[in-house]
Amino acid sequence: MVVLIESVVGIFLFTIIIVLVTLKDPIASVGDYPPAIRKKCMELGLVEERKKRFTKGDIVRKTAAMLVFIAALSWTLKCFNGAQTFWQGFRDSYLIWLIIDWYDGLILDCVWFCHSRRVRIPGTEDMEEYKDYRFHIRQSGIGMLLGLPACIAVGLFTALL
Fold first, then answer.
1. Is 36 exposed, middle or buried (0-12, 13-18, 19+ CB in 10 A)?
2. pTM (predicted TM-score)
């Protein structure tokens, strides 16, 4: 039950961050958009031409978010879940990670992103790629894999604290 409550809190915080950033400036999240939309944004001169999907700034922000996730979740699992071992920390953190990842892929991406006109970047509004469900599901699968090292770190920190 505690993991479910922690997952709901995580979903709430994740939603606030993603929705606010994307609605404020969709271009700021262009690295997370389907490839055809990113390419069109480069052609329109809305973002600089680049070979890599994410800029150094994107990577720094994502790494910082990952470190905050590791620290906050390690502390939370230790204090509220009573996690003492690597396995308890890893198991609970990965379950929370999966719940948030699936919520992101299914609700935020496949429901909100694919159907909201508010996330459309000017000049790309009519592109079919906004409804590329396979892209979002594939990204969610990648997110599941990216969660493994983060949750291993949470398990290690949980055991060491």
1. middle
2. 0.90
